[in-house]
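hey
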């Protein structure tokens, strides 16, 4: 399975959206260089209040561009970076990947998938009603979170729009993604 990087985004200050960049640099064990969520320990403000010593399993946030196509059909306009993601992909079923999947981004960078992003109320602050579009139900009626996945950086390197994304599934039985 492979796809491409559609866009890369980062922001050095706490803000819901992240501006698109020409490139971002991933740093092993840290995240996106200069991004407010980079660090070995948790940087999400809510999680820091609970326990600032938690390991940061949310170093790099990825969203599939196909989500933007889906919400556009429902009348919403969302562009890459506007939901706070660092890497927007195309051509990969990110939500269907198991925990521990390695994603090779470009020539050097590798991230390990840690889990699902838990969409926050800021999504409705960005566009009223959008939260209902990124939280759905599957055929069995179970809640399905569609706001992307989280990962940690295994190997650093530069990542740019147009770079290939290669998927390496983990060995053994696969574990479905859970909220991190």
């Amino acid at each position: 399975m492979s796809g491409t990087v559609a866009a890369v985004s980062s922001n050095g200050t706490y803000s819901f959206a992240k501006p698109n960049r020409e490139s971002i640099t991933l740093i092993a064990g840290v995240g996106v260089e200069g991004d407010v969520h980079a660090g070995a320990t948790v940087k999400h403000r809510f999680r820091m209040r609970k326990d600032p010593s938690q390991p940061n399993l949310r170093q790099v946030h990825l969203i599939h561009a196909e989500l933007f196509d889906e919400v556009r059909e429902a009348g919403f306009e969302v562009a890459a970076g506007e939901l706070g993601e660092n890497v927007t992909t195309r051509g990969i079923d990110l939500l269907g990947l198991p925990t521990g999947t390695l994603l090779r981004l470009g020539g050097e960078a590798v991230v390990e998938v840690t889990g699902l992003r838990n969409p926050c109320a800021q999504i409705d602050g960005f566009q009223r009603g959008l939260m209902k579009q990124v939280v759905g139900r599957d055929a069995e009626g179970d809640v399905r979170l569609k706001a992307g996945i989280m990962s940690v950086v295994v190997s650093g390197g530069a990542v740019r729009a147009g770079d290939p994304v290669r998927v390496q599934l983990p060995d053994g039985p696969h574990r479905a993604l859970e909220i991190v």
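Residues 65-73 form the longest helix (9 residues). The radius of gyration is 15 Å.
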